[in-house]
Structures are given as structure tokens and as C-alpha cells.
Design a protein that fits this description.
- The chain contains 8 helices and 6 strands; from the N terminus they run E-H-H-E-H-E-H-E-H-H-E-E-H-H.
- Helix content is about 45%, strand content about 15%.
- The protein has one domain (about 5-225): Decaprenyl diphosphate synthase-like (Undecaprenyl pyrophosphate synthetase).
- Helix 2 runs parallel beside helix 3 (about 65-85) and helix 3 (about 65-85) runs parallel beside helix 4.
- Strands 3-4-2-1-5-6 form a 6-stranded parallel β-sheet, sandwiched between helices.
- Helix 4 (about 105-115) links the parallel strand 3 and strand 4.
- The two termini are about 25 Å apart.
- The relative contact order is 0.19.
- By secondary structure, it is an alpha/beta fold.
- The protein binds 3-methylbut-3-enyl trihydrogen diphosphate (2 copies) and magnesium ion.
- One 3-methylbut-3-enyl trihydrogen diphosphate (IPE) binds next to strand 2.
- The site of one 3-methylbut-3-enyl trihydrogen diphosphate (IPE) has 11 residues, from helix 1.
Amino acid sequence: MKPAHVAIIMDGNGRWAEARGLPRRAGHRAGVEALRKAVRSVGELGVDWLTVYAFSSENWSRPRSEVNDLMGLLRLFIRRDLAELHQNGVRVRIVGDRENLEPDIKSLLLEAENLTAQNTAMNLVIAFNYGARDEILRAAKSLMRKVQSGEMEIDAVDFDTFGNHLDTAGIPDPDLIIRTSGEQRLSNFLLWQAAYAEFVFLPCHWPDFGREDLETAIATFSARERRFGGVGAREAAL
Ligand code: IPE
Ligand code: IPE
Ligand code: MG
């Protein structure tokens, strides 16, 4: 089966650049190019949802100049690509904490969501200033406030209620999570939503990620058996 939702940890921009004697910022620029291609390929392969990890809540600890480069690239991506994404029927959503982002970035993100809100061809979710622990904590706090004010009963909180208080409310859980660059960790990405995701780790750095890599990851996914805690199809038939 094809995944309905692919999420990607786009890692390795810095190492890609360093291997070429280039500054890290050149790697991030090349990474945006790879993102454009990935959105196109995901659409062509008929996958409905793509989530990309673009900036984590821990990435603020990088040198100021690199943080600025990454903020600049987000601005550039939205300004340059929004019209085309919209034309192609892509609905854009952003997950992460927007509170402390620059005002112009906040309005660009809102503009992208509003402009594309009615699109149905494909969904692009950008995780920006995103950290799963931060997201879970914010959801827990907003639920606690509702309980405190009497708007909600503690016992009424179930998985669905909790999920609906996360930034990803209304977004299906990822089926397949791909990480490039050879690292094998989640780095605070979608901890709640990844409960039953399949993982594929690829050795290539993100700027080198192309359509064949996506196809390989999807083929690997399709060959796996998901059990969700049950027994496999073979055992069930016995
Ligand atoms: C991914 O590439 C981009 C972001 C985290 C924003 P990195 O910048 O993490 O590249 P490496 O891991 O240092 O090679
Ligand atoms: C995860 O990559 C975040 C993004 C891809 C945006 P990092 O490069 O920040 O993760 P660590 O530091 O290697 O765990
Ligand atoms: Mg990295």
C-alpha cells in the first residue's frame, strides 16, 4: 500500500555544503531546491499529505547568522513559491509555535494558509519552529485551562480530544517518516503522531534527495507489514 502521509526530516544541508567547501548557507539554499522537487514528486506519486521538518524549536541554538539565513529562506520560499503551490492546488499548513516569530513571517505563514485553504489536490505541512514536546505541552496546557474553567471534564479527554489540541489537529498521522543524512533519530519531530509510523533512514544528504529516493522509501514502506499491535496477516489467517 502507498502511504497517505509522508513526513520528512530534511537533514544534512550543512554536511552537504561542507563536503563541497561551501558555507552552510549554500547547503540550506540547495535544500530549498530539493524541497521544491520533493513537493512535485510527492504530488505526482499521488501521496495526499507531505509534512516537512524545516526548523525545530531547538534550532534557535545555532549561530545567529545561520538562524537568520534559515528565516530568510522561509520568507523566500513562501514569497516565490506560494503562487505556484496555489496554482497546483496545494493546501499549505504550518505547525509549530508562531508566537515568537518575526511579525512579517507570521503574516506570510497566515497568508499561505489563507490563500490555499480551499485547495484539495495535495497538502503540504511545514513544521517551522516546531518541537513535539513543546507542541504536546501547549496542548496539555490548553486542555488544563478548559478543565479549570469548567468548559471540559477531565474524563472527557481521550486520544481524539488530545490530538485535536495539537498543532496537527485534522491532519492524519504520518504513515512513513523519512530522514536523510544517515542520522537515525527523531530530533523532537511528531512524537505523538509517529506512534505507528514506519521509518526509513536514507544515507543521502537532503540537497541530494530526489524522486528516486522518494520512490525507494515508498517501496520500502510498501514491503513492510504494519501490525498496530495486532498479529500479522499470515498469523491471522491460521
Ligand atoms: C537540515 O540540515 C536543515 C535544518 C536543520 C534547518 P542541517 O543544517 O541540520 O545539516 P547538518 O545536519 O548540519 O549536516
Ligand atoms: C532536525 O535536524 C531538524 C530539522 C531537520 C529541521 P537537526 O539537524 O536539527 O537535528 P539534530 O540536532 O541532528 O538532532
Ligand atoms: Mg542536522
